[in-house]
């Protein structure tokens, strides 16, 4: 049975709020055409250094790291999904065309072979009928 979630380490909410504020500030200030994060984009190590300086225990830091990872995944997850979907959509059209082209070639070869076999049978049957009629 799964154990109930642990309460966040003391100070976690404050640091999460700071991380959210930084992310929100950068998101709002980022021009639509910009595809890379700003130079001063906060990273987990910077936040953890701040927490270490505040005197957190190792267990509290581990909990803080877990909380931050979950929070950041929650914030970045939808954007990541959108990017993955765009890449899949972009590549799937080419793959479908490739598969359809291959299927068309195989089907054409099968139809040609079937027609050739059927014509061979008809010619053989007609030839046999003509020989029998002599």
Write the layout of secondary structure elements.
Elements: H1 12-29, H2 44-53, H3 58-133
Helix pairs in contact: 2-3
Can you give a write-up of this model?
With about 130 residues, the chain is mainly alpha-helical. The chain contains three helices and no strands. α2 packs antiparallel against α3. The N and C termini lie far apart (about 90 Å). The model has no long low-confidence stretch (mean pLDDT about 80).
Helix and strand composition category: mainly alpha
Total count of helical runs of at least 4 residues: 3
Task: Flag low-confidence runs.
Answer: none
Mean pLDDT value: 79
Report the principal-axis shape. Answer: rod-shaped
Helix coverage percent of residues? over 70%
Please provide the ordered H/E string of secondary-structure elements: HHH
The overall strand count is 0
Q: How far is the N terminus from the C terminus? A: 90 Å
Strand content: under 5%
Indicate the radius of gyration in whole angstroms. 33 Å
Which sheet architecture does the biggest sheet show?
none
């Amino acid at each position: 049975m799964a154990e109930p979630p642990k309460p966040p380490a003391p100070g976690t909410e404050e640091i999460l709020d700071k991380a959210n504020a930084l992310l929100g500030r950068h998101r709002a200030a980022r021009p639509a055409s910009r595809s890379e994060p700003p130079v001063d984009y906060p990273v987990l190590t910077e936040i953890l250094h701040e927490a270490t300086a505040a005197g957190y225990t190792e267990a509290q830091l581990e909990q803080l790291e877990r909380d931050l990872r979950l929070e950041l995944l929650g914030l970045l997850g939808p954007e990541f999904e959108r990017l993955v979907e765009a890449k899949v959509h972009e590549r799937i059209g080419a793959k479908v065309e490739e598969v359809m082209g291959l299927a068309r070639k195989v089907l054409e070869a099968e139809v040609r072979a079937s027609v050739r076999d059927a014509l061979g049978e008809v010619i053989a049957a007609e030839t046999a009928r003509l020989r029998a009629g002599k």
